[in-house]
Amino acid sequence: MAGKKTRSEASTSRGGGGGNGDRGESVVMDVGRRKSTCGYCRSGGRTSISHGLWVDTLTVDHYQALIDRGWRRSGCFLYKPEMEKTCCPSYTIRLKASDFFPTKEQSRASKRMQRFLDGKLEVRKSDKLIDEPSNSGGSCNAAHDQNAGPAAMECSVVASEDKENDDQRIRFLSGQIDKIVQLCLKSVELPKASVKKVPPAKRKLQADISEDLIYTSSIAFQIAAKIKRTKKNIENEKSVQRVLGEKEDSEELSPKRIAEILASYSKQLGDSCGLSVRACNGHINFYSAAEQAQLVEKTGRHVITKPSHVESDSNKKCSKKKYGEPQGQKRRLEIRLKKSCFDYEEYSLYRKYQLQVHNDTPAHVTESSYKRFLVDTPLVYVSPSDDGAVPPCGFGSFHQQYVVDGKLIAVGVFDILPKCLSSKYLFWDPDFAFLSLGKYSALEEIRWVSQNQVHCPSLQYYYLGYYIHSCSKMRYKAAYRPSELLCPLRYQWVRYDIAKPLLDRRKYVVLSDFAALQNGDSFPLNVLDNDMEEEQNSIQEEPNDVSTNDDEMAELDSEDSDDESDSDASVAATTEMEDVDLSNVLIGLKEARLRYKDLRHAFDSNQRKVLESHLQRYTRVVGSELSREMVYSLG
């Protein structure tokens, strides 16, 4: 195989391969089994086991076939987990774009972006939310800091009643009510206070002024029940009564009385949020003020508030997309699609993202590491065609930029292949985390597939990379429905709703064994009772990890290229393999391309034995068909 220079040239200067003609060739070097530490379960040992290929050049058709066999690329390195042996089995997950229907939470991301562009949503830099790859939670603002003062708490609450801000307000109000309860009842151990949004249909049941009722808390009932259970401790009850200002000989505290007391303590809290607080039948209710002024938070110097007038480039199809006109809008969003190449502005954003969100050290976020991971690509670019076989942007590796008024706020990295858009990575400006850019970019990529299927009918799917059921960071991927998982043995696609109960019981499952369930058969509950594995504990997410809210499309599917390959174990494993026909394996020897059957006589018996063991291993992991089409490089 050619050296690093050739890989670099392939990743940056290859532009050949027409839309209808020859799309180039794939040249790979098999490095065998690799063991490394796992970034998902953090076991500490070299428990992550995969098979690796270094790639010189790779056609989009061959890469499509490889990812449909469980492969994934990081730069010019391809890897495939050994599913039965690795600590965290990784299942390829995909979604048919035309069948996708967003959840309410995913739809909020689009609405939130539109409100931001309209100038109706502005958030202070200090109050930004952490973006996520999993579900919807995990804000990180001053309101959650017990040492934060009243001013910081006031600034952290968004008084708008839009759904996008409900979760943040509920968490803030719950936390503050809980502090008030703990302050009043230091000697009583109580459950955490919680505030819930009141559905319109239930508002009259809990409030005497139902029109303005927004949130309610039933903590008073829990306090009353706790006091009743501990009534035998008279001194404790008297202490509670004294703290609450009650006479010692008063009757037992009722939920109604406790709610009234807590509501009086919460008046200042309500004022800071633009809400009024009243007790009603044991509930602590939060009402919106009749003429409440919307609390607007500002983004500061990072966003231009005036409309940006940017010239359109009508000659570059599929390269730039603009949202909104200057009239009536404060901000302009442009989505620019370009072929993978090094861009210093992108690198600067990537560095900021890795340092602040992933807590990487500066020494590990270099230009060279960035290029290896997200710029270098072995894919041979395929130019667009007029026959509908290739979309207007072509096939290959791309970066999609999200630019607001000339400022780059996010970059999505993905491959566009004959059947799919394969998402690889997303990095974004931490100052704009409140926009849920992980969700927003995923929705845009799914929309892109749907739109371009008109130009290229074969382009139907959105691939989200790997899904690891035992890793909580990965759960966000299953939220894009209806999704499918790839069977690790027969490479058939199985619906996620069928796979989930199986993966709940065991990390590695041959999903195609249960394909009959698609016909409505009942699930055999005892099918996995034998030889069950203990489920791995969920990963504790770091406070600033990307996988808190949106994110999470920013999954790091990379291979540590510094790890040594376990070649001895790899060769030994071939003794357990069934013999495969190696006659037509395509071998590359310098510039020559020969079938193994025409080359085997050039090796002595010992060399043949070693080479054939490697070729059997290689043929098994890439498949017989690809072994005949891709070039297995011998140097």
Describe this structure in words.
The chain is α+β, with helices and mostly antiparallel strands. α3 crosses α13 (437-452) and α7 (219-229) crosses α9 (255-265). A hairpin with a 2-residue loop joins β3 and β4. Residues 1-20, 126-162, 205-211, 290-317 and 522-577 have low confidence and may be disordered. The protein folds into three domains: 1-122 and 305-565, no CATH class; 158-288, Gyrase A, domain 2; 583-635, no CATH class. The protein has helices at 4-13, 60-67, 104-117, 150-156, 166-184, 203-206, 219-229, 234-243, 255-265, 267-273, 344-356, 367-375, 437-452, 475-478, 496-505, 567-573, 596-599, 605-622, 624-629; strands spanning 27-36, 48-57, 72-74, 77-81, 91-96, 196-197, 213-217, 275-280, 283-288, 320-323, 333-339, 396-404, 407-416, 420-428, 461-467, 483-486, 493-495, 586-589, 592-595, 631-633. The chain has a nine-stranded mixed beta sheet with strand order 10-11-12-13-14-15-5-16-17, sandwiched between helices. The chain has a seven-stranded mixed beta sheet with strand order 3-4-2-1-20-18-19, sandwiched between helices. The longest helix is centred in the N-terminal third of the chain and has 19 residues, at 166-184. Residues 534-567 have a biased composition (Acidic residues). It catalyses: an N-terminal L-alpha-aminoacyl-[protein] + L-arginyl-tRNA(Arg) = an N-terminal L-arginyl-L-aminoacyl-[protein] + tRNA(Arg) + H(+). Keywords: Acyltransferase, Transferase, Ubl conjugation pathway. Residues 345-487 form the N-end rule aminoacyl transferase C-terminal domain.
